[in-house]
């Protein structure tokens, strides 16, 4: 599939690296130029402005959203299209919205690249104004992050030749996605996802992949009742939101919530 701005935004939320930021900015520029070139062909001899190429870019964005919806759990179809909501909605938390907003602002400050691609993606599918769709809760955003992470990591591992582990993560991605979409209560869903992650973390095929174990541990911590609060409260002392397992929290993950309650009383140094 061709490079898709919505899938790249989804990847940026998981891996907000300078490389991914640069890739988003460059793709935004290329998409705007593509619409501009099509407008020149559609209106020969006419000076091309926003009235000519922006409707074309909007049409393209809807196509990109439809393509991405086949691969992403963040893009959902709006069953009742209204003037407030487009055909597709990109699900994310308010904090994640702010992350993309800051990237858009950074691109707007540039002069050499057109920001229109990212502006249309943000304003049309991410920003909520009078929308019937609220931003995700932090807990739902976390689960969406988990689904994204499992899919992206599976793809990278497969490309690196770790086909069996990649297949294992893809299977876990599908199972987490199915749980997330089920009609069970939030408590039941969190328990089911936690059990699934525990099984995955302890799978013999994962034991040599320390990076995967670390991320799974982080998701398990965050899924607990106090985990998200703990990670946020101690992020500054760790210089990272995510916890780097090195204590009993990793070795005894089944008792994570109890361990975290003790840890909150004595923050990491």
Characterise the protein shown here:
The protein has 269 residues and is mostly helical. The protein folds into two domains: 122 residues, no CATH class; 128 residues, no CATH class. The protein is built from 13 helices and two strands, in the order H-H-H-E-E-H-H-H-H-H-H-H-H-H-H. Helix 1 runs antiparallel to helix 2, helix 2 crosses helix 3 and helix 6 packs antiparallel against helix 7. The longest helix has 25 residues. Keywords: Membrane, Plasmid, Transmembrane, Transmembrane helix.
Strand and helix map with partners:
Blueprint: H1 5-14, H2 18-42, H3 50-69, E1 75-77, E2 88-90, H4 94-108, H5 116-126, H6 138-159, H7 163-181, H8 186-201, H9 210-223, H10 227-233, H11 235-238, H12 248-251, H13 256-265
Antiparallel strand pairs: 1-2
Helix pairs in contact: 1-2, 1-6, 2-3, 2-5, 3-5, 4-5, 6-7, 6-9, 7-8, 8-9, 9-10
Task: Write out key terms for the chains shown.
plasmid, two-stranded antiparallel sheet, 2 domains, 269 residues, transmembrane, mainly alpha, transmembrane helix, 13 helices
> Which regions are unreliable across 5 or more consecutive residues at pLDDT < 50?
238-257, 259-269
How many individual β-strands?
2
Radius of gyration equals: 21 Å
Helix content: 55-70%
Instruction: Encode the helix/strand succession as letters.
Output: HHHEEHHHHHHHHHH
Which strands sit side by side, in order, in the main sheet? Answer: 1-2
Terminal residue distance: 46 Å
Number of domains: 2
Strand content: under 5%
How large is the count of helical segments?
13
**Major sheet size, sense and barrel closure:** 2 strands, antiparallel
What is the arithmetic mean of pLDDT?
Answer: 80
Overall morphology = globular
What structural class do you assign from the helix and strand content?
A: mainly alpha
